[in-house]
Design brief:
Homotetramer. By secondary structure, this protein is of the alpha/beta class. It is built from 14 helices and 23 strands. Strand 13 and strand 14 form a beta hairpin. It binds 2-aminohexanedioic acid (UN1).
Length: 516
């Protein structure tokens, strides 16, 4: 524990303001308004920000639409140049922005920096993509005709992001949306407004360097509550909403988008599992499980929450896991060697306590999970919890089938791989999953059609920590959206099928005759 590093209450706020000022944010903006920003490191107030009311969101969206109309005529590789400049700004600001992520979201230093690295990576990816936004040419049945696909920008892309990846999620969406010719309007989590202002300031630097072809309203930030998110979701000029958050949020947003036939990318809850086979390399599995379950204090949507261990290796593996849980350093995330920082706020703490109480009621044996005093009563540092459930005929207890956004890992033994896969799939969410095995049959089975039902299925790595090159997202209650790499860019464009007759006659398809 890191009692020695308890910080003086003024220091976090002062440092956050200094970092933002360095990015070019006017410090006067941080001193007035109704939204109180806090740091989970100490619970102290860092800033007070003005919030946008839903009515004043509309003009921002309208200006963004105007910006898109100009931006769509800029050739895509040239649009890529803006994103290249953004990547340059992010490289230059990596240490400072990573630090701000640590101060505002509570991530340990390497994870704060890693999040900014994800932003840089997606910028690089998008720059290459800006020369590849390709469609197909398709054989037509009609002589002297050509059939092809064109991909065009959509318009305004609304981005709603969560506190746990306060900057990377914007970048996954914005970098692709911008090279695809869209403008973006961002509603960040109310828990992490400062990092959003910092990113917007860095984007503005890139836009200024790019020159007049990049309109002023290409990217904007709306600081506000759910009502502002709703304004984005309901405005007819927002062509696509990419929303990351809880399944409950997705359930509120999806019908409104469907009602006006708008596009959606939903990245909602996860309840991710890993299977440790009796053939697994247990050293490797231990490291994979520990990072995925305890990293980011259990606050990734890809966090490992359920673990199924084959009965032959259960005792030896779970004993080792318990000692890893017992020795992991919980404390101030700025201190080298600390691996688990604070929960985001009081409500997250209460959620963890309630889940552990329910798990105990359901027959679980709990290791860890107690509160650690690092920086006083307004900061919520928790020792990660391991909950062993006895093998019961009734499958998984209800608490295990729900996502609690905290470092709790439920552990159960299994006998056959079929049983483990059935348990892993028997939850509402379908984001990420893993198997640790050295048996080729088991590995292939797990990633096959009869295996994991998740959007992400890994072998011999944990379920968290995805790279930007792959498409990211999940099935079922996770919402079905895909963003980031692979061909996710298509979600940010509309496809037009063009058939061109370069002949002098008009043959009709399907042999239809219509002579007038
Ligand atoms: C999230 O938790 O919201 O795979 C996204 C990962 C990260 C993204 C997580 N690259 O853990």
């Amino acid at each position: 524990l890191d009692q020695s590093t308890t910080t003086s209450p003024a220091s976090v706020a002062a440092e956050a303001v200094a970092l933002l000022t360095g990015f070019g944010v006017d410090p006067a903006l941080l001193r007035r308004g109704d939204l109180v920003a806090r740091s989970p490191l100490t619970g102290e107030e860092t800033a007070r920000l003005a919030v946008v009311d839903p009515a004043s969101a509309a003009p921002v969206i309208e200006r963004a639409h105007e910006a898109h109309l100009a931006w769509r005529t800029v050739p895509a590789p040239r649009r890529g140049e803006l994103v290249r400049l953004l990547g340059e700004e992010l490289r230059a600001a990596k240490d400072d922005l990573g630090r701000l992520v640590t101060l505002e979201a509570g991530k340990v230093t390497s994870e704060g920096l890693g999040e900014v690295q994800e932003m840089i990576d997606i910028c690089d990816f998008a720059v290459g993509l800006s020369r590849q936004l390709y469609g197909l040419t398709i054989a037509t049945e009609r002589p002297q005709h050509r059939m092809m696909e064109s991909w065009h920008p959509l318009g305004v892309v609304g981005i709603i992001s969560a506190f746990n990846f306060p900057v990377a999620v914007w970048a996954w969406n914005a970098a692709l949306a911008l090279v695809c010719g869209n403008s973006v309007v961002w509603k960040p989590s109310e828990k992490t407004p400062l990092t959003a202002l910092g990113v917007q300031a860095l984007f503005e630097r890139a836009r200024q360097r790019f020159g007049a072809d990049a309109p002023e309203a290409l990217s904007s930030v709306l600081i506000g509550d759910a009502a502002v998110g709703a304004a984005l979701v309901e405005h007819r000029l927002v062509a696509l909403v990419s929303a990351t958050g809880s399944t409950a949020m997705g359930r509120a947003v999806a019908p409104k988008l469907a009602a006006r036939f708008a596009r959606q990318i939903l990245e909602l809850g996860g309840n991710n599992a890993a299977i440790v086979s009796d053939t697994a390399d247990l050293d490797l599995a231990l490291r994979g499980v520990a990072f995925a379950a305890m990293g980011t204090a259990g606050q990734r949507c890809t966090t490992l929450r359920r673990l199924f261990v084959q009965e032959e290796v259960y005792d030896v593996f779970v004993d080792r896991l318990k000692s890893a849980y017992g020795s992991v350093r919980v404390g101030d995330p700025r201190v080298p060697g600390v691996l688990v920082g604070p929960l985001i706020d009081h409500a997250a703490h209460d959620g963890m306590v309630a889940a552990l109480a329910e798990a105990k009621q359901a027959g679980g044996t709990i290791h860890g999970g107690d509160r650690v005093d690092v920086a006083g009563e307004d900061a919520f540092y928790m020792r990660p919890a391991l909950v062993e459930f006895p093998p019961g005929a009734g499958g998984q207890p209800a608490i295990m089938q729900r996502e609690t956004f905290a470092p709790i890992l439920y552990v159960m033994r299994y006998r056959s791989l079929e049983q483990a896969i059935a348990l892993q799939n028997d939850v509402a969410a379908g984001l990420s999953s893993s198997i640790f095995t050295r048996d080729l049959h088991e590995a292939e089975r797990f990633v096959s059609v009869e295996g994991s039902d998740c959007g992400i299925a890994n072998v011999n790595i944990g379920p968290s920590g995805a790279e930007i090159g792959g498409a990211f997202g999940g099935e079922k209650d996770t919402g079905g959206g895909r963003e980031s790499g692979s061909d996710s860019w298509r979600a940010y464009m509309r496809r037009a099928t063009n058939t061109i007759n370069y002949g002098k006659t008009l043959p009709l398809a399907q042999g239809v005759v219509f002579d007038v």
